Amino acid sequence: MSEKFDIVVTCVRCRQDFEGFNEGQADECAADVRGEVVRGHYGSAVLDMETAFFADGKDHGLPDGQICDACIEHLCAAGLLLRPTQELEEKLRSL
Ligand SMILES: [Zn+2]
Fold first, then answer.
1. Is residue 38 predicted with pLDDT exceeding 70?
2. How many structural domains compose the chain?
3. End-to-end Cα, the chain, rounded Å
4. Which residue from 7, 30, 76, 91 could staple onto 41, CB 3.0 to 4.6 Å apart?
5. Distance from Cα 64 to the centre of ligand 1, integer Å
6. Residue 3 above 80 pLDDT?
7. Beta 17-22 vs 81-82: how paired, if at all?
């Protein structure tokens, strides 16, 4: 646990600490890994209020928690994380 910031948000993938403006939310680290999906919140530059999907379903090996924008971009570039398409968004809405 870092003591650099009042609120620390640690990325579950790269373990970097970010200064949170809210519990679990920081600039550049404001998305949550939740099972098979990553939910972006306000503050995430790459997944602003969007949901992305792990290509491998639950086998991505990351614990639930916050993930930073750099890691999201890395996972997207590697094809491990699928950005929301209109088709997926519509499917989610119908669930
Ligand atoms: Zn990270």
1. yes
2. 1
3. 38
4. 30
5. 13
6. no
7. unpaired
